[in-house]
Design brief:
mainly alpha, 12 helices, 0% strand, disordered C terminus
Length: 334
Amino acid sequence: MPDVLSRELLAPYLHAQAADFLRSLRLHRESGQDPQGAADAAEAVHALRGSARRISGTLHTFRPLTDTGWADTLRAELAWLSGTLAREHAYAARLTRLLGALNRLSGAGGADAGPASVPAARGGGAEHAGSLTVGAARAGALLERQLTLARTRAHSAALQALGSSRFHAVADAVALLASDVPLGPAAAAPAAEVLAPLATGAEQRLKEAVAALPLGRASHPYNAEALVHGLAPAPGGETQDAPWHHVRLLLRLHRYAQEVVAAPADTLPAAQALDRHRDAAEAATAAASAARTPRIAPATAYALGVLHADQRHEVEAARFAFQQAWQPEAATTP
């Protein structure tokens, strides 16, 4: 790296991500003209979001090397686009997760239900099992109504966004990025002097955030203290989840920075654990929100409470998985 200039690493990476963005956009448009292209459209949106995140994350980490005004504007617009496109998939995945958990907890999931079925067993006796079975169907129907409505609205918002002048401006900016990256004077400096320290800074911020996590408590598969906090009304549970969500973001920024310097880090197991953590935490929130629906039957509320506890256990299991994935990496750190 000593003879390589910062721009010789940063510009090609951004060119490639911009090209991927435009390719995904084209595939999305083509799939939209095919009545059987729903799966292809979903895959194209997923790829589009991935490219948008990489461009945005790279501009964040290596901001001092760019035209900062341009970089800040494009980052904000890409964050808007990625967030808007993510919601439909998030609601669909959340519904699938919650209905699957309800089936498992109520006994419809078969004999291999796994440790997450513990909250149902802890209710104690056939009476509680019966209440769960009775309430599970109604709880599932309630969740399906709420999350399907949210997904439909998110789908409409995504279509509206993709047809808006704001999106076309973003696409135009990315099209320019595919051929020309507005870099600042610092990008002409050697990568070892400027670009590499910025990538190291992203890694250091990640390590500091991980060090602040309660990894000692997360070394146990089920952290009862965290479960109690998770069952508490907001913002108690959200407060405890937030540092983990922040680490997930920093891990993503670190991974993208390593891609730029051509030294990809083996962070996939840790990243997958944090994705599961986020999914379970949001599913638990959705179950709690459904339980606050006015005038629902006691059996329905009971099933939603068990479902909420189950997903909080999944949160703790994901934290344990992250701790297991991270510790070997941390142990090799000088």
